Amino acid sequence: MNSSLANIGSVGLGLRRVLLDPLLDQVPDIIDFFEVAPENWIGVGGRLGRKFRQVSEQRPLLCHGLSLSLGGPDPLNELLLKRIKQFLDENNVVAYSEHLSSNCIDGQLYDLVPIPFTVEAVRFVAERIRRVQDILERPLIIENISYYAAPGQQIDELDFIRHVLEEADCSLLLDVNNIYVNSVNHGYGAQEFLVGIPTERIAYIHQAGHLRESADLVIDTHGAPVAEPSWQLLQTAYEQFGSIPTLLERDFNIPPLHDLLPELQQINLLQQTTKTVEKNRAKQ
Questions:
Q1: Which of 127, 139, 177, 269 shows the greatest Cβ crowding within 10 Å of its Cβ?
Q2: SS3 assignment, position 2
Q3: DSSP assignment letter at 20
Q4: Beta bridge partners of residue 219, listed in sequence order
Q5: Does the pTM exceed 0.85?
Q6: Could you give the number of structural domains in the chain?
Q7: In 10 A of CB 75, how many CB atoms?
Q8: What CATH number does the domain containing 225 carry?
Q9: Partners of 247 in beta bridges
Q10: Tens digit of pLDDT for each residue in 212-255?
């Protein structure tokens, strides 16, 4: 696990604006860290900015970017990167991650476009990751995305991710739900995919809900409770990699905070179960 994340705790929550007021008085003990998209908070001041600082300063803060378009054809937005760096520094952000995707083609797209799974794309995106790290003066963690088509594919998704991690020498934000979504939509085994992930590259984990459209189509929405297949896959991930810090993502249809607590507790339960099994094995 990334050394900068060694002390953030076990269970995290994506910090959204609608959750600020419920968290002002007291952050529940189950929440060890928060994560925000810096693009949503850069330049925010006034009462909302004060609420954000009051809440975020109570726990370690991670950032998960939306706009770098690491695999896109447009030049890197270095002005945005400098603003992000300032935000990370001012808010003592522990770690910064971004999607292994594209979303800028002569303008901002409000969706994540998969990078072609090719050897050339590996070299291209790895070079851009290194440039981002040089500007930010800190490591960049990349996240495996959900996708619905793979145009120009020459190598499989898992090999593409592994090659990028190696070429760029960076860490992985392992999104378990994205693996499940892709396994259904593209017809591969989710557990077999997990086995191929290099353990030493994993920084932390994302868990989220999805929408089941049909037997062979799942939409990654982050707008519903976590489904049982994703819980099972998270348990498999812990068995494979250990009890890695895990963040619950909920970006749409956000319920009251107390309705999110059972899912945070479920993450904690799976982690504690894994630790107990590991201790029992060590005693044998």
A1: 177
A2: coil
A3: H
A4: 211
A5: yes
A6: 1
A7: 9
A8: 3.20.20.150
A9: 12, 206
A10: 888 888 888 989 999 999 999 999 999 999 999 999 999 999 99
